[in-house]
Specification:
There is one protein chain. By secondary structure, this protein is mostly helical. The protein has 2 domains: about 20-140, Voltage-gated potassium channels. Chain C (Four Helix Bundle (Hemerythrin (Met), subunit A)); about 145-310, Orthogonal Bundle (Helix Hairpins). The chain is built from 12 helices and no strands. The protein has helices at about 20-25, 25-50, 55-75, 90-110, 120-130, 140, 145-155, 155-180, 190-200, 200-215, 220, 230-310. Helix 8 (about 155-180) packs across helix 10 (about 200-215). The longest helix is centred in the C-terminal third of the chain and has 79 residues, at about 230-310. The two termini are about 50 Å apart.
Length: about 300
């Protein structure tokens, strides 16, 4: 059964029954996780061998299992499945969206039967089928380390945006320097064509520096005889730009994501500790109630015995 009434602070949601026991059993969790991995493999095989006639049947079988699981969870949890106080609300919504997209895929497949490959319905069906990949998101739920990594990355998105903005400013400033120093060399310079093609204006210079930042290609400059070694300032700039820009950015992003993962893990540990504390409080209360009832029953029996003796 499901508890009725609003949940109090620290109160645990008590769900019982064979369906809930099945959903919470380790064997069922392993079964669902295995199906998700198998579904991922099937998607790859379907991509490489699309001519096989049985893929739709296999996908519908996966959809039936995943849909049945969601239906059972809604049946067991009731309205709390959609409650904002439910810690699993985000995953519940993801599961509903995944099943909903699968059902939409089935409906569109029936409507598009016999339609031309280039028709709007067939194009829409292909786009919807690409969204089957969202099923793979459920893998994150069953793998703790992958869960921490994914949510650590999500938590780090804001910091990554600021790091990206910082690097854009650095690229812009360095591009101005490059355009004013190398992009305006005289045409008589032996490397004028190369420098003009890579540092002729701010956008081109930023693109060149971005390529250097993401995949340092020193041979590109070393192949230009005398370009680097005849300009020691340019050589020092490239060295420091690659060291600080490329390696520094990677280290900064790694540190930000790692910190977010650590904080997320600490939050999970704290939540688990609070759940255990709430469970202990509930257990103590129930133990006290049982003890009180037993004591009252013992007192009642003793009183009855004394009354019989007095008679």
């Amino acid at each position: 059964g499901i508890q009725s009434g609003p949940l109090l602070a620290g109160e645990q949601l008590e769900l019982t029954g064979p369906v809930h026991a099945l959903l919470e059993s380790r064997a069922f969790q392993i079964f669902i996780a295995s199906l998700i991995f198998l579904n991922a493999i099937i998607m790859g095989l379907e991509t490489d061998y699309p001519e096989k006639p049985y893929w739709n049947f296999v996908e519908n079988a996966f959809l039936f299992v995943f849909g049945s699981e969601v239906f059972m969870r809604v049946y067991v949890e009731g309205w709390r499945f959609f409650s904002c106080s439910n810690a699993e609300l985000n995953w519940n919504m993801i599961d509903l969206i995944i099943v909903g997209l699968g059902l939409l895929d089935v409906v569109l497949a029936l409507l598009a039967r016999g339609a031309d490959e280039g028709s709007a319905m067939a194009t829409l069906l292909r786009m919807i089928r690409l969204l089957r990949l969202t099923r793979l998101l459920r893998i994150v739920k069953f793998l703790k380390q992958l869960y921490l990594l994914a949510f650590g990355f999500i938590e780090a998105v804001q910091a990554i945006i600021w790091v990206t903005l910082l690097m854009a400013v650095v690229l812009y400033v360095c591009s101005i320097i490059m355009v004013r120093t190398l992009g305006t060399v005289a045409d008589s310079d032996p490397h004028a064509e190369f420098l003009h093609s890579h540092f002729k204006d701010i956008p081109t210079s930023m693109l060149t520096l971005f390529v250097i930042l993401t995949s340092p290609d020193m041979p590109l400059f070393l192949r230009q005889d005398g370009l680097v070694f005849d300009r020691p300032g340019f050589l020092l700039f490239l060295i420091f730009f690659i060291l600080i820009g490329s390696f520094g950015t990677i280290a900064l992003l790694t540190g930000v994501i790692s910190e977010c993962m650590f904080e997320k893990n600490m939050v999970r540990i704290e939540e688990r500790r609070k759940e255990q504390d709430a469970f202990m409080v509930m257990w103590e209360q129930k133990s006290a109630e049982i003890y009180s009832e037993s004591f009252m029953r013992a007192g009642h029996k003793e009183g009855v015995a004394k009354a019989e003796i007095l008679r």
